[in-house]
Amino acid sequence: MKILVCVSKTPDTTAKIAFTDGNTKFDEAGVQWIINPYDEWYSLVRAIELKEANPAATIHLVTVGNADAEPIIRKALALGGDEAIRVNTDSSDAFYIAAQIAEVAKQGGYDLVFTGKETIDYNGSSIGGMIAELIDAPYISLATKFDLNGTTATVVREIEGGEETAEVALPLVVSCQKGVAEQRIPNMRGIMAARTKPLKVVEPAAVDALTTVVGFELPPAKAGVKLVAPDNVEELVRLLHEEAKAI
Protein backbone atom coordinates (compact mmCIF):
# COMPACT_ATOMS: atom_id res chain seq x y z
CA MET A 1 0.00 0.00 0.00
CA LYS A 2 1.25 3.47 -0.88
CA ILE A 3 0.22 6.44 1.24
CA LEU A 4 0.74 10.08 0.27
CA VAL A 5 0.64 12.60 3.12
CA CYS A 6 0.29 16.30 2.28
CA VAL A 7 2.49 18.53 4.43
CA SER A 8 2.31 22.32 4.58
CA LYS A 9 4.66 24.92 6.07
CA THR A 10 2.77 27.37 8.29
CA PRO A 11 3.72 30.15 10.74
CA ASP A 12 3.89 29.19 14.39
CA THR A 13 0.70 30.14 16.20
CA THR A 14 2.69 32.54 18.39
CA ALA A 15 4.12 34.45 15.40
CA LYS A 16 3.48 38.16 15.17
CA ILE A 17 1.32 38.82 12.11
CA ALA A 18 2.19 41.76 9.86
CA PHE A 19 1.97 42.58 6.15
CA THR A 20 4.14 44.37 3.61
CA ASP A 21 3.85 45.79 0.09
CA GLY A 22 0.65 47.69 0.80
CA ASN A 23 -0.83 44.83 2.84
CA THR A 24 -0.63 42.42 -0.10
CA LYS A 25 2.09 40.11 1.26
CA PHE A 26 2.67 38.36 4.57
CA ASP A 27 5.75 39.71 6.37
CA GLU A 28 7.96 36.68 7.01
CA ALA A 29 10.64 38.56 8.95
CA GLY A 30 11.36 36.84 12.23
CA VAL A 31 8.62 34.24 11.75
CA GLN A 32 9.13 30.72 13.12
CA TRP A 33 7.82 28.11 10.67
CA ILE A 34 6.30 24.77 11.65
CA ILE A 35 4.55 21.80 10.06
CA ASN A 36 0.86 22.55 9.82
CA PRO A 37 -0.44 20.89 13.02
CA TYR A 38 -3.36 19.12 11.33
CA ASP A 39 -0.90 17.55 8.87
CA GLU A 40 1.65 16.59 11.52
CA TRP A 41 -0.43 15.52 14.50
CA TYR A 42 -3.21 13.69 12.73
CA SER A 43 -2.80 12.74 9.05
CA LEU A 44 0.93 11.91 9.22
CA VAL A 45 0.70 10.07 12.54
CA ARG A 46 -2.29 8.02 11.33
CA ALA A 47 -0.29 7.07 8.23
CA ILE A 48 2.60 5.99 10.46
CA GLU A 49 0.23 3.86 12.55
CA LEU A 50 -1.06 2.18 9.38
CA LYS A 51 2.51 1.37 8.38
CA GLU A 52 3.25 -0.02 11.83
CA ALA A 53 0.31 -2.39 11.33
CA ASN A 54 1.44 -3.20 7.78
CA PRO A 55 5.24 -2.89 7.40
CA ALA A 56 4.92 -3.38 3.63
CA ALA A 57 3.23 0.02 3.35
CA THR A 58 5.22 3.06 2.24
CA ILE A 59 4.67 6.67 3.25
CA HIS A 60 5.57 9.50 0.90
CA LEU A 61 5.30 13.15 1.89
CA VAL A 62 4.50 15.96 -0.51
CA THR A 63 4.74 19.69 -0.07
CA VAL A 64 4.34 22.59 -2.46
CA GLY A 65 6.95 25.19 -1.64
CA ASN A 66 10.38 26.63 -2.18
CA ALA A 67 13.66 25.37 -0.74
CA ASP A 68 12.93 27.03 2.62
CA ALA A 69 10.22 24.38 3.16
CA GLU A 70 12.77 21.56 3.28
CA PRO A 71 13.53 21.78 7.04
CA ILE A 72 9.81 21.32 7.64
CA ILE A 73 9.54 18.25 5.45
CA ARG A 74 12.73 16.82 6.98
CA LYS A 75 11.01 17.00 10.37
CA ALA A 76 8.07 15.12 8.90
CA LEU A 77 10.50 12.49 7.62
CA ALA A 78 11.93 12.25 11.13
CA LEU A 79 8.50 11.36 12.44
CA GLY A 80 8.25 8.39 10.11
CA GLY A 81 7.88 9.22 6.42
CA ASP A 82 9.92 7.10 3.99
CA GLU A 83 10.65 9.74 1.38
CA ALA A 84 9.49 13.19 0.38
CA ILE A 85 8.60 15.15 -2.73
CA ARG A 86 8.81 18.94 -2.92
CA VAL A 87 7.07 20.68 -5.81
CA ASN A 88 9.36 23.61 -6.51
CA THR A 89 6.88 26.49 -6.47
CA ASP A 90 5.00 28.64 -4.00
CA SER A 91 1.43 29.88 -4.11
CA SER A 92 -1.46 30.86 -1.87
CA ASP A 93 -4.03 29.69 -4.42
CA ALA A 94 -5.77 26.53 -3.18
CA PHE A 95 -6.56 25.17 -6.65
CA TYR A 96 -2.99 25.62 -7.84
CA ILE A 97 -1.62 23.79 -4.80
CA ALA A 98 -4.19 21.00 -5.11
CA ALA A 99 -3.40 20.58 -8.81
CA GLN A 100 0.31 20.19 -8.07
CA ILE A 101 -0.37 17.56 -5.40
CA ALA A 102 -2.85 15.79 -7.68
CA GLU A 103 -0.17 15.54 -10.36
CA VAL A 104 2.18 13.88 -7.87
CA ALA A 105 -0.62 11.55 -6.74
CA LYS A 106 -1.42 10.51 -10.31
CA GLN A 107 2.18 9.72 -11.14
CA GLY A 108 2.76 7.86 -7.87
CA GLY A 109 -0.29 5.60 -8.02
CA TYR A 110 -1.15 6.03 -4.34
CA ASP A 111 -3.84 4.04 -2.58
CA LEU A 112 -4.49 6.65 0.08
CA VAL A 113 -3.99 10.42 0.25
CA PHE A 114 -4.12 12.09 3.66
CA THR A 115 -4.41 15.82 4.29
CA GLY A 116 -5.04 17.82 7.43
CA LYS A 117 -8.55 19.25 7.65
CA GLU A 118 -7.11 22.72 6.96
CA THR A 119 -3.97 24.80 7.32
CA ILE A 120 -3.75 27.18 10.25
CA ASP A 121 -2.75 30.16 8.08
CA TYR A 122 -5.50 30.38 5.44
CA ASN A 123 -8.02 27.97 7.04
CA GLY A 124 -9.51 27.22 3.64
CA SER A 125 -10.21 23.50 4.18
CA SER A 126 -10.55 23.03 0.41
CA ILE A 127 -7.35 21.28 -0.74
CA GLY A 128 -8.47 17.71 -0.01
CA GLY A 129 -11.70 17.96 -1.97
CA MET A 130 -9.94 19.48 -4.95
CA ILE A 131 -7.28 16.75 -4.97
CA ALA A 132 -9.99 14.07 -4.90
CA GLU A 133 -11.81 15.64 -7.83
CA LEU A 134 -8.63 15.99 -9.86
CA ILE A 135 -7.57 12.36 -9.37
CA ASP A 136 -11.17 11.04 -9.60
CA ALA A 137 -11.21 9.47 -6.12
CA PRO A 138 -13.76 9.49 -3.28
CA TYR A 139 -13.27 12.13 -0.61
CA ILE A 140 -14.18 12.14 3.08
CA SER A 141 -13.56 15.27 5.14
CA LEU A 142 -13.21 15.97 8.85
CA ALA A 143 -12.34 12.39 9.74
CA THR A 144 -12.08 11.67 13.48
CA LYS A 145 -11.39 7.94 13.08
CA PHE A 146 -9.86 5.91 10.27
CA ASP A 147 -9.53 2.12 10.08
CA LEU A 148 -8.41 -0.06 7.21
CA ASN A 149 -9.35 -3.66 6.43
CA GLY A 150 -7.64 -4.77 3.26
CA THR A 151 -8.70 -2.30 0.59
CA THR A 152 -11.77 -1.05 2.46
CA ALA A 153 -11.57 1.96 4.77
CA THR A 154 -14.01 2.69 7.57
CA VAL A 155 -14.08 6.40 8.30
CA VAL A 156 -15.92 8.25 11.05
CA ARG A 157 -16.48 11.93 10.41
CA GLU A 158 -18.21 14.79 12.16
CA ILE A 159 -21.52 16.04 10.82
CA GLU A 160 -23.89 18.61 12.26
CA GLY A 161 -25.37 17.19 15.42
CA GLY A 162 -23.45 13.90 15.42
CA GLU A 163 -21.17 11.51 13.56
CA GLU A 164 -21.31 9.62 10.29
CA THR A 165 -19.59 6.31 9.51
CA ALA A 166 -18.72 5.43 5.92
CA GLU A 167 -17.10 2.43 4.26
CA VAL A 168 -15.13 3.30 1.16
CA ALA A 169 -12.96 1.29 -1.21
CA LEU A 170 -9.45 2.52 -1.95
CA PRO A 171 -8.09 4.67 -3.55
CA LEU A 172 -9.34 7.42 -1.29
CA VAL A 173 -8.60 10.99 -0.16
CA VAL A 174 -9.23 11.83 3.51
CA SER A 175 -8.81 15.05 5.48
CA CYS A 176 -8.02 14.40 9.14
CA GLN A 177 -8.67 16.25 12.36
CA LYS A 178 -8.43 15.69 16.12
CA GLY A 179 -9.34 12.15 17.11
CA VAL A 180 -7.72 10.33 14.18
CA ALA A 181 -4.38 10.00 16.00
CA GLU A 182 -2.33 11.40 18.86
CA GLN A 183 0.61 13.75 18.43
CA ARG A 184 4.10 12.23 18.34
CA ILE A 185 7.52 13.77 18.86
CA PRO A 186 10.48 12.78 16.63
CA ASN A 187 13.10 10.73 18.45
CA MET A 188 16.85 11.01 17.92
CA ARG A 189 16.96 7.93 15.72
CA GLY A 190 14.27 9.37 13.46
CA ILE A 191 16.00 12.76 13.29
CA MET A 192 19.30 11.18 12.25
CA ALA A 193 17.63 8.90 9.68
CA ALA A 194 15.73 11.84 8.16
CA ARG A 195 18.98 13.43 7.01
CA THR A 196 19.57 10.70 4.45
CA LYS A 197 16.01 9.88 3.41
CA PRO A 198 15.23 10.78 -0.22
CA LEU A 199 13.80 14.24 -0.86
CA LYS A 200 12.93 14.62 -4.52
CA VAL A 201 12.41 18.08 -6.03
CA VAL A 202 10.08 18.27 -9.03
CA GLU A 203 9.11 21.22 -11.17
CA PRO A 204 5.47 22.34 -11.08
CA ALA A 205 2.87 21.33 -13.63
CA ALA A 206 1.56 24.03 -15.94
CA VAL A 207 -1.53 25.13 -14.02
CA ASP A 208 -3.16 28.56 -13.83
CA ALA A 209 -3.98 29.91 -10.39
CA LEU A 210 -7.64 30.85 -9.98
CA THR A 211 -7.25 33.48 -7.26
CA THR A 212 -4.93 36.35 -6.38
CA VAL A 213 -4.53 38.20 -3.11
CA VAL A 214 -5.95 41.70 -3.25
CA GLY A 215 -5.01 42.57 0.31
CA PHE A 216 -4.83 41.48 3.93
CA GLU A 217 -6.41 43.22 6.89
CA LEU A 218 -5.76 42.74 10.58
CA PRO A 219 -8.79 42.48 12.87
CA PRO A 220 -9.58 45.58 14.93
CA ALA A 221 -7.82 45.91 18.25
CA LYS A 222 -9.75 44.60 21.22
CA ALA A 223 -11.58 47.22 23.24
CA GLY A 224 -10.81 47.74 26.91
CA VAL A 225 -12.75 46.00 29.65
CA LYS A 226 -15.07 47.95 31.89
CA LEU A 227 -15.32 46.75 35.47
CA VAL A 228 -18.58 47.27 37.32
CA ALA A 229 -18.80 46.97 41.09
CA PRO A 230 -20.98 44.01 42.18
CA ASP A 231 -23.37 46.30 44.05
CA ASN A 232 -23.78 48.76 41.15
CA VAL A 233 -26.58 46.93 39.36
CA GLU A 234 -28.02 50.09 37.79
CA GLU A 235 -24.74 50.83 35.99
CA LEU A 236 -24.47 47.25 34.75
CA VAL A 237 -28.00 47.41 33.33
CA ARG A 238 -27.27 50.75 31.68
CA LEU A 239 -24.11 49.42 30.02
CA LEU A 240 -25.91 46.33 28.77
CA HIS A 241 -28.67 48.47 27.25
CA GLU A 242 -26.53 51.25 25.80
CA GLU A 243 -23.06 49.86 25.02
CA ALA A 244 -23.15 46.08 24.84
CA LYS A 245 -23.23 44.70 21.29
CA ALA A 246 -25.32 41.75 20.27
CA ILE A 247 -23.29 38.66 19.42
Report on the architecture of this protein:
The structure is a single chain. The protein is α/β, with parallel strands linked by helices. The chain has a single domain (about 1-220), classed as HUPs (Rossmann fold), CATH 3.40.50.620. About 30% of the residues lie in helices and about 30% in strands. The protein has 6 helices and 13 strands. The chain has helices at about 35-55, 70-80, 95-110, 125-135, 190-195, 235-240, and strands at about 1-5, 10, 20, 25, 35, 60-65, 85, 110-115, 140-150, 150-160, 160-170, 170-175, 200. The strands form 3 sheets. A 9-stranded mixed sheet has the order 11-10-9-12-8-1-6-7-13, with helices on both faces. A two-stranded antiparallel ribbon has the order 2-5. Strand 6 (about 60-65), helix 2 and strand 7 form a beta-alpha-beta unit. Helix 2 (about 70-80) packs across helix 5 (about 190-195). The longest helix is centred in the N-terminal third of the chain and has 17 residues, at about 35-55. The chain is globular, with a radius of gyration of 21 Å. The model has no long low-confidence stretch (mean pLDDT about 95).
Helix and strand topology:
Blueprint: E1 2-6, E2 9-11, E3 19-20, E4 25-26, E5 33-35, H1 37-53, E6 58-64, H2 70-79, E7 83-87, H3 94-108, E8 112-116, H4 127-135, E9 139-149, E10 152-159, E11 162-169, E12 172-176, H5 188-194, E13 199-202, H6 233-242
Parallel strand pairs: 1-6, 1-8, 6-7, 7-13, 8-12, 9-12
Antiparallel strand pairs: 2-5, 3-4, 9-10, 10-11
Helix pairs in contact: 2-5, 3-4
